[in-house]
Specification:
7 strands; Alpha-D-Glucose-1,6-Bisphosphate, Chain A, domain 4; alpha+beta
């Protein structure tokens, strides 16, 4: 089977003045992320693994404010390589959303100089594309609105990466 290319693919990166262990702590603290990121309106853990746990199969329902509206998605962790990488997936309306973080120690010395963090987002159509008038409307909508949505999504990802970096830097400096 041939892999389907994403309709959208965004990568945002940033250096974080904190070790990978601290950055990992921030990005895998679901309840903490809900308090940290202002666009998250609600977060409800669906898996019965308990607060503070994060592993493959962890699921939650996340409501965000996007484009002036609230949107709720069910998210699931699909891959975990502690302090290195995590992948999260959601599906809605015939689109699969793959989100993830890649962490790499920065610097060449024995003591890393912080962490280089990459925030990934891909949106891929799943199933057969709509045909007829509906298919035409979807293609026109993507052509017209796609570039705007990509810019807005990139800005949101940059803002969230900045907040994650600030929180990790604060924790690494001994803050609570």
């Amino acid at each position: 089977m041939t892999a389907v290319e994403p309709m959208w693919s965004i990568r945002v990166s940033r250096h974080v003045e904190a070790p990978a262990a601290v950055v990992w702590q921030v990005i895998t603290d679901l309840e903490g992320m809900a308090g940290l990121l202002p666009d998250i309106v609600r977060l409800e853990r669906l898996s019965d693994d308990g607060p503070g746990t994060y592993h493959r199969g962890t699921r939650w329902r996340e409501t965000r404010r996007m484009f002036g509206r609230e949107a709720t998605e069910t998210m699931e962790v699909t891959a975990v390589d502690p302090e290195r990488r995590t992948d999260i997936v959601a599906e809605h309306g015939g689109v699969r959303y793959d989100t993830g973080f890649d962490l790499a120690p920065a610097g060449n010395g024995a003591e890393p100089d912080g962490t280089d963090l990459v925030f990934r987002f891909d949106a891929t159509q799943v199933g057969e594309p709509a045909t007829g008038v509906k298919g035409l409307a979807e293609r026109v909508g993507m052509t017209v609105m796609g570039p705007l949505a990509m810019r807005v999504t990139r800005k949101q990802m940059e803002r969230e990466l900045s907040l994650i970096a600030q929180r990790a830097g604060h924790l690494a400096a001994g803050g609570g």
